[in-house]
Amino acid sequence: METVTLTITNQPGLFLEADCISPDAFAGKKREEIVDLPVYIGREVHRLGDFFEVSGQAGATAAETKVVVNGDLSRVKYIGMKMTAGEVVVNGNADMYVGAWMQGGRITVNGNVDAFAGTGMKGGEIVINGNAGNYLGSAYRGDWRGMAGGKIVVKGDAGSDLGTFMNGGEIVVGGNVDVHVGTHAEGGKIIIKGDAKSRLGGQMVEGEIYVFGNIDVMMPGFAYREDVDLEVDGTKGRFALYEGDLGERHRKRKGQMIYGKLYQLVRP
Predict the structure, then answer these.
(1) What is the pLDDT of residues 191-230, one digit of tens each?
(2) Would you state the pLDDT for residue 263?
């Protein structure tokens, strides 16, 4: 695998839209061509090289290309957007839409990310070694197609509206989450290893939510069923199973009503 290294040298005054920072956009290009790729500040068009020092070379295909981005990227949006293969490593904090609509490959962020990371994600893996903002793995605002595949792992905390309209895939949060988890979900798995606030699974149709810590307020549309013994992401324990959201319309499968499932670890 060939590696292209970007180091930010000129912080944008406003937010920089750089969806070209992707193995797909770099593959098959020489360094001089990568430097000339377009990036945007509002309606202004700039060159990637106006903000980044570029070194190394890309592979012939996305799968053969690794992109390493160094520095404070907290004003740089769309890193790894729509990527299909290869690898991106961000050594610093990044702005919104990291891995948005991603289809394959792997993104590692050694820092925090802002909102909408993994929005509309269909495949691949995103690992965030810091905290994640709001709308992680969710649908774009006004859309109903949230995360459908792939996996997102957050080592720290995550914000609100995680997994909104989620249809598939998996999200694992090592810390705590804010309100509105799995709203309108129709599939997928969400694992929260810390605490959750309120409104988990609101209007949830199908899918699974696992909470290892406390839930501040349980949605009234979820009904307790039983305690079950499970192994979740390497942790064995007894979980209280709740089904819901009972206020939603639910489809049937083999004559049985399908509900979303919310599991909370039972503390001794």
Answers:
(1) 999 999 999 999 999 999 999 999 999 999 999 999 999 9
(2) 98
Q: What is the pLDDT of residue 58?
A: 98
| For the chain, domain boundaries | 115-268
pTM as predicted: 0.96
CA 46/CA 32 separation, integer angstroms: 15
- How many Cβ atoms are within 10 Å of 87's Cβ, its own excluded? 21
Distance (Å, whole) CA 120 – CA 82: 9
User: Rounded CA gap, 163 and 169, in Å?
Assistant: 10
Q: Is the pLDDT score of 62 beyond 90?
A: yes
Share of the chain above pLDDT 90, in %: 93
* Buried b or exposed e, range 181-194, using 16+ CB within 10 angstroms: bbbbbbbbbbbbbb
Quick check: 70 and 6 in contact, CB under 8 A? yes
With beta carbons less than 8 A apart as the criterion, state whether 100 and 82 touch. yes
